[in-house]
Amino acid sequence: MSKVYILVAEDDADDRFLLETAFAEKGYGEKLTFVENGVELLDYLRNIKYDEKTNQHNLPGFILLDLNMPKKDGREVLKEIKEDPRFKKIPVIVFTTTKNEKEINRCYELGANTYVVKPVGFESLLQTIEDIRSYWFKTAQIP
Questions:
Q1: pLDDT digit string (tens) for 43-83?
Q2: Where is the signal peptide (predicted)?
Q3: Which of 15, 18, 68, 69 is the most exposed place for a label (fewest CB within 10 A)?
Q4: 56 phi and psi angles, rounded to 5 deg
């Protein structure tokens, strides 16, 4: 079985560092793979190679997706991921600072699996990451 990894689309270097630090502090084994915008995210997914040993593509366990990124924002990327038969089953967790009800509804309409507002403090980030991992790796059944 391929090693589980998490694909993170985040343009802010400080937020990337905080996520890396949170995962390291908790001792999680998943590799974090970072892309900085929507174009890079889609390019990354389209370039995933087929694994002959497992007879499948090594897709991420889930995607943490920021909405407000350059080149192609999270909304556009979310729509493209969920319309593509190769990628639509990958859980996409919108992970953003935007907490507008219209925006939340729009993301769910576009196919988001979960919408999480980024926590403010580091301790809150640790708990949020624990909750997300616990749900997507232990609780949820993913085809």
A1: 999 988 766 666 666 788 899 999 988 888 889 999 999 99
A2: none
A3: 68
A4: -155, 170
